[in-house]
Amino acid sequence: MSDNLLDINIRHSLQTANGILPMEVSFSLSKGNILALTGPSGAGKTTLLRQIAGLVNPQSGKISLDQQLWLDTSQDIQIPTRKRNIGFVFQDYALFPHMTVKENLLFALETKGDEKVVDELLDAMGLTQLHGRKPHQLSGGQQQRVALARALVRKPDLLLLDEPFAALDHSMRYQLQNLLLKFHRLYHFTVIIVTHDIGEIFRLADRVMIMNHGKVTQLGSPAEVYTSETDNADDLTLSGEVLSCQKLHGHLLVSALIENKVRQLTLPLDMEPQMLPGNNFTLPYSLDPNRIRLVNNR
Ligand SMILES: Nc1ncnc2c1ncn2[C@@H]1O[C@H](COP(=O)(O)OP(=O)(O)OP(=O)(O)O)[C@@H](O)[C@H]1O
């Protein structure tokens, strides 16, 4: 066990539609790093987050954060979820529908009476005006801001995010990414974020880990992992907002806002209906023949 690290070494049997798939994952992450976890559907990404959170127990292995041992099957140690200082955000928000925004945050507080943190978070997330609303009275982006605020209430050591912004349009996703980066700078928590979006990976992540069939197939910086020789881009998407689109030499020439930067894409003609100015798009990254290289612009 090392200082200032998330250390994971687990084995499990995934029960897939095609039978048992052995899962074996071993990696370390420095404190304060943001790890993007990606790979095809069924690779075991969500299961790994659930194991780290203590919601699923791996059949064998160890998980530790800093000096705290969260799991060691050889010593029968399994620290329950509530004692691992973790925040979660999932794609579907998972707010309590009968509670107001503020009540959702207060519920996440461990000790009553520390309401100041809740008010500060509501303010920082631009939610103060909405504190009395129920989730169904909020937009998707607002609900996800509440979910992020709720995950941060207990100042977690580790934030686990499972495709948290995937359902949001481009500008909302960008705003939420900014909020995540802002709080990351303030609190220095470690983050694991499941994402398929190449722009999001380059914008947020220090490290990228690709999983396939229950195994880690690659781990490195975004620039190392997405080099032109070893292009692991098959499962990735590119999302943005169309600014303009014109036909040129049998292709579409599209100007788009991607991670708040204007970029040019050359796309097949049959994508014209999706490429109307103002539209948000998500397309397979492999479709872009120029493979736009997004620099880490944090
Ligand atoms: N607790 C569990 N024990 C064993 N197998 C599980 C468990 N939970 C899920 N599985 C199986 O593990 C496989 C991987 O599922 P998982 O949801 O982790 O994949 P994923 O990489 O997150 O996929 P997606 O990108 O589609 O969300 C699936 O076949 C699923 O049925």
Automatic annotation (TrEMBL):
Record-level GO BP terms: quaternary ammonium group transport
ABC transporter domain: residues covered: 5-238
Q: Which SUPFAM superfamilies match?
A: P-loop containing nucleoside triphosphate hydrolases
User: What keywords were assigned to this record?
Assistant: ATP-binding, Cell membrane, Ion transport, Iron, Iron transport, Membrane, Nucleotide-binding, Transport
One term of GO molecular function: ATP binding
Cellular component per GO, a single term: membrane
| InterPro entries cross-referenced by the UniProt entry | AAA+_ATPase, ABC_SmlMolc_Importer, ABC_transporter-like_ATP-bd, ABC_transporter-like_CS, ABC_transpr_FbpC, P-loop_NTPase
Alphabetized Gene3D superfamilies for the sequence: P-loop containing nucleotide triphosphate hydrolases (3.40.50.300)
Protein's recorded name: ATP-binding cassette domain-containing protein
